[in-house]
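**User:** My hope is that you can spare some time for a protein that puzzles me. I have put the entry right below:
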Amino acid sequence: CPVVVAPRNSSVAMPPPADIVKVAIEWPGAFPKLMEIDQKKPLSSIIKEVCDGWSLANHDQFALQHADSSNFYITEKNRNEIKNGAILRLTTSPAQNAQQLHERIQSSSMDAKLEALKDLANYSRDVTFAQEFINLDGISLLTQMVESGTERYQKLQKIMKPCFGDMLSFTLTAFVELMDHGIVSWDTFSVAFIKKIASYVNKFASDISILQRSLAILESMVLNSHDLYQKVAQEITIGQLIPHLQGTDQEIQTYTIAVINALFLKAPDDKRQEMANILAQKQLRSIILTHVIRAQRAINNEMAHQLYVLQVLTFNLLEDRMMTKMDPQDQAQRDIIFELRRIAFDAESEPNNSSGSMEKRKSMYTRDYKKLGFI
């Protein structure tokens, strides 16, 4: 077999080193810059190099973020997630951005305030930004805005109702996103704040975004703090939640059942049976069958999960009764159990009952009762 020798001047393309990623970096008003990022270099050095390429001073006030819909900041912890061909954006640092938004959401201009709250709701999904905003006591600022918001803008609601609704929606969205990072304890919130959120469940039934965020906040309060459970339970009743199950928005229905489950789960044992009785009086089962299960739409995974949790919590109340032994001297109980077995199994086994020994019939009864859970 002849041996083929490659010419000396031929070159074989080698793959780029694993530590090098090729990206495009955007900056407003400039053409994107193609760049190779060395993942072994400190991120601050890379940012300085990018800033120098556009003659931008104070590189420590800049950061890189993904240019996709997430807009998440790139940090030393997550930089390894950058892929070849990624599009990045040079932007203000998380600390600078948090400081600017902290000031903007306190603007006296309603339009400026609304735009700032919209940006805050978007940025708060990023834990890097969230940490900086929380460091500025941003959570307290948002809660103060919620507590005083309705009164402060009461006169404006008649002429700017859509604007007020959007402002409140973005404020609650930002609050939920910030709290979801688990940086701040739920035990820090006032009764006034809880009362305000609970009131939104009734006042803003027609505003889906406000209602959804309010229900989400109530659920988290109940699940994450025993003290808040007691306060929320005083402010919201099952009767106030039931109407939200009779609507057509499945997301609202899901959050409503989630709040009911949370209240059920955190309630003391003596209160759980009381809650179950109230749910029965309010015909919760019938409402769920009519407006959720038999509605002309598919049940999503989260709704299926919440329905399962509700079912388990309800069945758990019957455990003591289920484990109670039957009194063998009580003929009425014996008759009920015998009738239950007959209804469940005699239709399929009746032809064989007239024949066969007593032992065989006794064995069959034992098997049937075991299937019913009595043995």
